[in-house]
Amino acid sequence: MEIAAPRATLTVDACLRVLEAALSHGRSQGHRIWVAVADATGELMGFIGCDGAPRISSRVAIDKAFTAVATEQPTSAWKAYLLSAPEEEREIIRNFPRYVGAEGGHPIVHEGLVIGGIGVSGASQKVDEECARAGLAAIGATPR
Questions:
Q1: Rounded Cα–Cα distance for residues 62 and 37 (Å)
Q2: Domains of the chain
Q3: CB-CB neighbours of 81 under 10 Å
Q4: CA-CA distances (angstroms) from residue 76 to 27, 70, 128, 143?
Q5: Using an 8 Å Cβ cutoff, are 119 and 67 in contact?
Q6: Could you give the C-alpha distances from 91 to 79, 80, 87, in angstroms and in order?
Q7: CA distance 107 to 77
Q8: What is the per-residue pLDDT for 103?
Q9: What whole-number distance in Å separates Cα of residue 46 and Cα of residue 48?
Q10: pTM
Q11: d(CA 101, CA 37)
């Protein structure tokens, strides 16, 4: 019986690169967004926002990053699950408000392990998604 499992987490340098790339992508298109990066446990590791980005979107970005780590899937997949889940399951899930079902969040995967997550909010879900993917690309990670 194995009693230990390998774990890894995102490095600070990778976190900074993800933040910068996602923010830069959004700003280059004239969007004011928030970008959050979580470590492998879902805790906030890095966070940045544009001047004038919607305040409510700051928390959404953080919770998208958390959701991506906690579910080990893109937040768009969580959204699809929520839309298809029976009402009694959705009622249980509503008791866990940090779980966000919207585009713009992705787990960061390295060698098969979820080492972190990115969440972007402040523009449309489509743009949030593009920015999150730009953040992944900056470190050579691909969407799950």
A1: 7
A2: 12-138 (3.30.450.150)
A3: 15
A4: 22, 14, 11, 11
A5: yes
A6: 15, 16, 6
A7: 11
A8: 98
A9: 7
A10: 0.95
A11: 17
Structure tokens at 91: 């009622």
Q: Write out the two tokens for 81.
A: 């699950």
pLDDT average per 10 residues of sequence, the chain (144 residues) = 90 98 98 98 97 97 98 96 94 92 97 97 98 98 93
- Tell me the C-alpha distance between 18 and 136, whole Å: 6
**Digit-coded pLDDT (tens) for 127-136:** 999 999 999 9
Cα–Cα distance, 89 to 57 (Å, whole number): 26
Separation CA 135–CA 35 (nearest Å): 9
How many Å is the Cα radius of gyration of the chain? 15
Name residue, tokens 């009693």.
Answer: 3
